[in-house]
Design brief:
With 456 residues, this protein is of the alpha/beta class. The chain contains 14 helices and 19 strands. It has helices at 11-26, 50-65, 75-80, 84-87, 103-111, 163-167, 175-187, 223-232, 252-260, 277-283, 289-302, 321-334, 361-384, 425-429; strands at residues 2-7, 30-31, 40-45, 69-74, 93-95, 117-119, 145-149, 151-152, 171-172, 192-196, 239-243, 267-269, 307-314, 338-343, 390-398, 405-409, 415-419, 438-446, 450-455. A six-stranded parallel sheet has the order 2-1-3-4-5-6, sandwiched between helices. A five-stranded mixed β-barrel has the order 15-16-17-19-18. Helix 12 runs parallel beside helix 13. The N and C termini lie far apart (49 Å).
Amino acid sequence: MRFHIHTYGCQMNVRDSEAVEALLVAAGHVKAADEADAELIIINSCTVRQKAEEKAVGKAGNMIAAGKITGLMGCAVKRMGADVFKRLPKLDFAVGPRRFGLIPHLLNRIAAGEKGILEVGDDEVPTGMDAHPDVQRGGTSGMFQSYVTVLLGCDNRCSYCIVPEVRGHEYSRPAKEVIAEVKCLAARGVKEVCLLGQSVLRYGIRNKAWEPGEPNASGLTEAFPRLLWELNQIPGIERIRFTSAHPKGCTDELVRVYRECPKVCRHLHLPVQSGSDRVLAEMGRHYTRAEYLAAVKKLRDFDPEFAVTTDVIVGYPGETEADFEETRTLMEEAGFDNSFVFKYSPRPGTRSAALTDDVTTAEKERRDQVLLADQESRGQRRNEALVGTVREVLVEGPSKRNPKRWSGRDSGNRIIVWDVGENGEWVKETGDLAIGDFVSLKITEAHPQILIGVPV
């Protein structure tokens, strides 16, 4: 059967979609050229925000109306359960985040005449996920990059977040399984892996990731730094990223890995959400403003150029102007390289949904714009400090905005672009530089979101 997958949401959903694609191909199905060519459409859904869920459900409805065999997978299925068939009565199947490994089997049942199949479950170990590490994708952005899920679920239980309800308790994949997958990817030409987890620095805390007696040449005692150290030894892998992090995971052992393992990228996405201790406590974030800033300082003391990015929520219930100003001052003190600002909206099933959403839409928008303007100035300053330095860049290909330029990222995940001429002459002159190659660029110009360089 020819299939096509639509993915909404985070990197973990992208990774899950890739796993489903690999499982379907291994089962004899064929990836369609596009949606129109497909007999089967699978929509991987997100429910972190209402709008994302509505997009996925709407897309499924359109595919059903077009006469396609249609399945919905992911977080929205877990949230809605059997109610998904009230919204989409003619949906062929619906699968929760930890049961997508069953999809090839469900297609056999559909071929036998079944309809309206629901598989949600609360499996600790995802069914079918990466059972065979040799069944892998080429990568997410091309053959040179790939996501690798190491931690599923979340036990942090932040007041505003529905992820623990839809993705379940934390489960750390066995380290030997992750290492086998990354070795397989390296053999297929992947140069950069990004390790995924809702709070990835909690890897190995709820369940053991390492078996007793497994060799430990690093001498590290914490599960995640030890995993990073082992992945750093794999030939062919040149860069290791991971997301997202929590300040309590910024330990001395993590800093040691950054110091000793050159493949581990000098960038950490460290969501802060608020700079007010009162709001942080209400959110259930389990750290204070001072503890968060101490984590950033530990990284920057090791390397002043270390890139730290973050997520922030404005307009959380009860957030006063004073609370908001504390967020502004924290962001300035932390000196974030980039920030992603979200306007609070309640999600059913979360603790904060019971609170009065008392910050007006207009005020949320104002605070959003203030923080974005602050970040523009801050990003400009951080980037200007890099002018004149030489950065090693992993080539990602032509710039989306200007085909006369190519684009790539340095270890700090900064986007760097450079001129290649009308027809890519510079690329040709230097021996057909290809996507996935490394190039050294001297930074000549800085902007808040990108850097511009020239080859050296």
